[in-house]
Amino acid sequence: MLLLKPLCTYAYAKRTHIWRLACFNRLPLLGNNPFAVLTAVVAPAILTNASSVFALGTSNRLARVVDRTRVVYADLARSVTDSMEYSEWMEQLEALRLRGRMLLRALRLFYAALGLFAASALVSVGGSIVTYYGRKGLFEVAAGLAVMTGASAVIALVTGCTLMVHETRLAVQSLTKEGEIWKRQQPSTGLRAF
Fold this sequence. Notes:
Elements: H1 4-14, H2 17-24, H3 35-78, H4 84-132, H5 136-185
Helix pairs in contact: 1-2, 3-4, 3-5, 4-5
């Protein structure tokens, strides 16, 4: 930093393009640290990968809920309309609908996080390019945009994970209730509830 100040003053006196670059590099930006660009790009890339894994897992869980809904509909069709068994299967169906909505909302959030992290990485690369050319105003816009997109992506990722935790809790509760239903239907088989 101490060596940069005389260069800035000297270049200012010469009124050259070097003055803008030297004075701009006073900020602790990419010129002093070759790993700064890598860090700015890799962090969103790793979180993009995490979002992809969450989206894949959520898609699989959503498919399982769809399959389970079909089975519950079949059990519902075999039940007598006003029986206790029918109302229990209706409760299971309602829980499956709620789980499906939660999973769909979480999946949307994970996809939003995926796109926002990718945008954040792209804006970070753009910010490093404008830094090289000494465009302070564009750099500040790019830095602000990268922080906003990255923060929005983190919020989407955390919210999606929270929904997944709640959906898992509902899945375990539904599994327990379903075990109780099967236990009442076949008490002589010796099978235990889930």
